[in-house]
Each structure stands twice: as structure tokens, then as C-alpha cells.
Amino acid sequence: MLHAAPYRTQAPLAPRLLTASLILLATLVLWSLWSLRRHWTHRLAAEQALLREHAFRQAMENSLQTGLRARDLEGRITYVNPAFCRMVGWPAEELIGRSPPMPYWADELLEETRALHDRILAGKGPLEGFEIKLKRRTGEVFDVLIHEAPLIDARGHHTGWMSSIVDITENKRTEERERQQQQRLQATARLVTMGEMASSLAHELNQPLAAIASYTTGCINLIDSGQRDAAQLKSPLAKCAEQAQRAGRIIHRIYEFARRAEPRAESCDLIAIVDEVLGLIDADARRQQIRILRDLPAELPPLLGDRVLLTQALLNLVRNGMDAMAHMPAERRILTILGKRGDATLRLSIADRGGGIAPEILAHLFEPFRTTKAEGMGMGLNICRSVVEAHRGRLWHEARPDGGCIFNVELPLVDT
């Protein structure tokens, strides 16, 4: 009989640890592969989003009509967008990396442009947008509006300057056409005004001419009668010369007012302008039996502007006041020109005692081609406002409590 009794011995620890390590390592490998796949998926999604964002921004830059240009702190071009390349005519490859002077700088303004470029790099450039002329590759010079801003990187460091550039050549041409059209319209309005005053001016000129003829006839009669004493001829000849000078002043005044000239910025004496207007309107006022009261300070500092245009605006306002009183009783035909000086401005008020302005007209008072006159152009008040605003002033209307209108002109003084 065989009796077997098994004895269990303790398994060694090393194989168990090895097995566990292999299982753990396999688990880690599987987890790493899963994490890597997840990371790769997220990375691909991020890259796709970045590509879409970059393509979107690139499409935005390509569709811009505004030129973009980046420069480093040394003034070298680091970036230009397609709009800027189309604007100047040079491709980006020829512009990036270029240092001043740039090929698109206008030749006649080279020094001025270089000085402005240096001020911008030094941080002393204009805070607002500024206008300058640039040159296309074809040699054509054009106007641009440039805004400069510091270029800051992601770490907050100032790395250069970013420019936005807009071609304003067509705007400049449009402004010039509008200016010339306004100038022609002003000249036409002056001629129409002179046409309306023609009969009065003819009467005004007729007086000195008649006096000259009378004095000349008297001198001829003295000579024919044998009285050739120089002392007797001196007095009528002096009066004849005086009347000739008076006629010459009237003609010169008419010529200066009616002629078409470029607007000029010069020192103007408002009192002299008022006197000139009253000289032009005096014959018409006497014919219509209108009294003109003039109340101005004795001394006024000069205004800076165009004397002819200011005379035209004031003359239009005075004539409007006279026309408003044409059908009023004689005792109400009083036009007052009142001047009052403020701290920095001068206000001139032209007040009439006419019938006033109807409420339905007030809303369109300064609009062009609107008039209550049978033969009017409807441009008088519009031109007046344009002239006043061109001189940095303002023009407005007030109703008089006792009937009539007051047109106020406020202009800045030179010493402001």
C-alpha cells in the first residue's frame, strides 16, 4: 500500500510581480494609445479650426479696400495686404523688408515724407489721421488718409507700427468739383444780385456823370465867353475830378463784387465791409424809402476770411430784409444792422420790420431752390450759410416780437 501526502510550498513572489507588471504595462499602453488618439483628434480639430480662422482672416484682408502696412521699430516693412499692393502697384515680395526711402513716396515730397516717417517712429506722429501724397508704380501721384497705431505683440511688447491707408483721391476730386461748383454758383448769385440792382446802380452812376457833364459844359461856356481865368476854371474842374473819382469808386466797387475770383483768407475789417454793402445798397434803399440804421462798435479786431464772399453774404441778408419790407407802410421800413462783440466772436444782426416768415417756410429756410420771390433763385440764404460756415461761423434766424425777422451772423475773431 502506497500513501502519498502532498505538501504545498509557497509560490515565489517574482513571477507574480512579473505577471502583474506585464498586465499593468499592457493597460498603460492601451491607455496611452487611447489618450494619444484623443489628443491627435483634438489636435486635428484645433488645426482645422486654426486653418479655417486663418483662411477667414486672410479672406477678410484680401477683400479689404483699406491698405494695411506693418513696420518694425527700424521702419522696415514687415507686412502689406493685397489692397495696399494694388494701391501702390508693387507686389508684397518687393515691399516686405524694404527700408526708407520707400518706392511709393512721392518724389516732390520726399523730404517731407521722410520727416513725417521719422516722427512716427519716434512716437511723435499725428494722433489723428493725416493726409499725404503717395506715388503709384506708374508714376501717378494720389492722395491717401493714413492712421498709425502701435503694433503690440502677445507679450505686450511694442514691436512696430501698424498703418491703415485709404485712397481718398476720388474724394478729393469730388470736393474740388463741389468747391468749383459752389464758387460758380456764388459768382452767378452775385451777378443776379447786380442785375437786380442794375437800375439803382445806373441811377447812382448817372449822378456823378451828369455832374461831370454839367461842370464840363460850364468850363466850356467860360472859355467861349472869353473868361479864361485859371482861378475861375479851377473850382469846376476840381469838382469835375471829384465826381469822376466818385463814379470810378462805384464802378470799382461793382467790379470787385461781381468778379469771380478764388476765395482768399485775408484780414477783413467788418466795419469796412458793412460800409461797402451800404454803399452798394444805398441807391436802392433811397428809391424804396427804407431807412438803414447802423449800430456797430467803434473799433473791432479784424476777421480772417474772404472779403468778397463776406460782402456777398451780408448784401444778400440786407437785400432780403429790404425786400421783406417792400409792401409795408413807410414808417415801418427800417432796417437795423447791429454789431455786438463777444469774448471770442462777433455777432452781426440784420433786423427788418417786414411780415415775418411763414411757419411752413421756416423748416426749409436754408434749403436751396426754395424762395418766396417771384423771380428769385432760392439760393441766397443757402449761399449765405455756406459762406458763414466756411468762415467757421454760424447763421440762424429769429422772429421779432413786434413783427419781422432777425438774421444773426456769428464769426470768430482773429485774436482768438
General description of the model:
- The chain is of the alpha+beta class and 416 residues long.
- The protein folds into three domains: 63-167, 2-Layer Sandwich (Beta-Lactamase); 170-262, Helix Hairpins (Orthogonal Bundle), CATH 1.10.287; 264-416, Histidine kinase-like ATPase, C-terminal domain (Heat Shock Protein 90), CATH 3.30.565.10.
- The protein contains eleven helices and twelve strands.
- The protein has helices spanning 13-63, 82-88, 92-95, 110-121, 169-196, 198-224, 230-258, 270-287, 307-324, 359-362, 380-390, and strands at residues 67-72, 77-80, 130-135, 141-152, 158-167, 266-268, 291-295, 303-305, 334-341, 345-351, 394-399, 405-412.
- It has a five-stranded antiparallel beta sheet, with helices on both faces.
- The chain is elongated, with a radius of gyration of 42 Å.
- The mean pLDDT is 79.
Features:
single chain, 416 residues, alpha+beta, Beta-Lactamase, Helix Hairpins, Heat Shock Protein 90, 3 domains, five-stranded antiparallel beta sheet, five-stranded mixed beta sheet, elongated
